[in-house]
Specification:
Blueprint (H helix, E strand, L loop, with lengths): L6 H10 L4 H19 L8 H13 L13 E5 L17 H4 L5 H8 L3 E6 L27 H8 L5 E6 L5 H7 L2 E4 L19 E6 L2 H11 L15 E5 L8 H16 L4 E5 L4 H27 L5 H11 L3 H24 L4 E5 L19 H6 L3 E10 L2 E8 L5 H15 L2
Parallel strand pairs: 1-2, 1-3, 6-7, 6-8
Antiparallel strand pairs: 3-5, 4-5, 4-9, 8-10, 9-10
Length: 429
């Protein structure tokens, strides 16, 4: 059920006209009609293919359109992100007309770069924990992760080469790891969240999924403010393993495979060093989770007062918890973001670490789709707002992918993606 659909290669083919947009859409239609009924990654759309054909014809009639960086590329849009002509339902039973708003900045940026909206992708309810119907393309008895479930699954299955996601704890990196694709969560604020239904505005990030790091660099150059191209041939980064209680949150199987991945990087000539860090991870976890609850209650207050009975149990529980978080605790949680970033940055500088490496998730995707898995391995990096990339490896447990995540300094997103090119080659050798 997994098909190669590398963004960078497809961009090149569409731009040099060795592949037409019409031919590419025909390929995707065949694949989608075969696979989508099993994985349910997309919101149903009765006229998807006629709409895409019309959109592609309009694009082709635009002068110099083939020179645009994402010319003809269909992009999945997570269904908390507004796109003109589409309702935003957020996997919720609330009236869609109350949720839909002006088109998101990221969607406008993608369209300006020549991309086509492939369709809306399934999210958990309001990007929290209440899952949708999406299954993991590697094994449909397992979750794809969440909350960006549909985006990760659609990219993994080759239905589209690029899809938008969001992350408030682990909603890009974890599903990318579970589905065996690249997931990129930029530095906090580097990609606009305007036009996205928030969950917790202090820690919400907008990012995306691809199958290839080279493709992720193209997408990042379109979406990240002030993107700078880093030349090839940079020195290899020194890699830090975050030793201590944070790392012990992973499963024993997950840790075994993670240490195997670290040894492979060492054997390939990387300097890999264990560094004690995040001794207060339990406190950070608590601050982050309470901050999300409080801010979710603020976002949803009016909707919840009017439509509380229409919310899923897990989302309602979060909002109810949020009502009980004192103002002082909210301030502590917000301050903790910068404190955690400073701590991680200081340790990196003290030990000459360029990149942290960690398991992308606690282990492989759990069985069943009633839960999207534990995001705890992603939490401190999101809390600190640091750029993070999920890197797929060639390793599996019972046929399910195992990924790693790499993290670097705030606003050093360009360096992270540049380094990730070689790291992914090493871990997929």
């Amino acid at each position: 059920m997994i098909h190669k659909n590398h963004l960078a290669k497809t961009v090149a083919k569409l731009q040099n006209k060795s592949l037409s947009v019409e031919e590419y859409l025909d390929e995707l239609r065949t694949r989608t009609e075969s696979i989508e009924p099993e994985i349910e990654s997309l919101l149903p759309e009765s006229d998807r293919w006629s709409r895409l054909t019309s959109d592609s014809e309009q694009l082709a009639s635009t002068p110099y359109s083939a020179q645009k960086p994402l010319y003809g590329i269909p992009v999945g849009v997570k269904d908390i992100i507004h796109a003109s002509g589409f309702q935003t339902k957020a996997n919720s039973s609330l009236p869609p007309e109350q949720l839909t708003g002006p088109e998101a900045t990221v969607v406008r940026q993608l369209k300006s770069a020549g991309a086509l909206v492939f369709g809306k992708t399934v999210t958990t309810e309001f990007a929290y924990s209440e899952p949708g119907p999406t299954k993991n393309p590697h094994n449909t008895n397992h979750t794809p992760g969440g909350s960006s479930s549909g985006s990760a699954a659609a990219v993994a299955a080759g239905l589209c080469p690029l899809a938008l996601g969001t992350q408030t704890i682990g909603s890009i990196i974890r599903p990318a790891s579970f589905c065996g694709v690249v997931g990129f969560k930029p530095s906090y604020g580097r990609v606009s969240a305007e036009g996205v239904i928030p969950l917790s505005q202090s820690v919400d990030h907008v990012g995306f999924f691809t199958q290839d790091v080279a493709g992720a660099e193209i997408a990042a150059s379109v979406l990240c403010a002030g993107w700078q191209t880093i030349p090839e041939g940079m020195d290899r980064p020194t890699i830090g393993i975050p030793d201590g209680p944070y790392l012990q949150q992973a499963s024993s199987d997950g840790l075994d495979r993670f240490h195997t991945h670290c040894r492979r990087l060492e054997q390939a000539g990387y300097d890999v060093e264990k560094v004690p860090v995040l001794p207060d991870i339990e406190t950070i976890n608590k601050y982050h989770e309470r901050l999300i609850a409080a801010e979710a209650a603020m976002v949803h207050h009016e909707w919840y007062q009017e439509h509380g009975e229409k919310y899923g149990a897990q989302t309602a529980e979060l909002i109810e918890e949020g009502y009980g978080v004192p103002t002082r605790e909210i301030a502590i949680g917000r301050n903790s973001r910068m404190e955690t970033r400073t701590h991680l940055t200081d340790v990196m500088e003290d030990h000459d670490i360029d990149i942290w490496i960690a398991p992308g998730a606690c282990g492989p995707a759990p069985e069943g789709i009633d839960s999207t898995g534990d995001p705890i391995m992603n939490l401190p990096w999101t809390h600190a707002g640091l750029p993070t990339i999920a890197i797929p490896t060639d390793d599996t447990i019972n046929g399910l992918p195992i990924g790693v995540q790499c993290v670097t300094h705030f606003n050093a997103d360009e360096h992270l993606l540049n380094w990730a090119r070689e790291i992914v080659r090493t871990l997929q050798a």
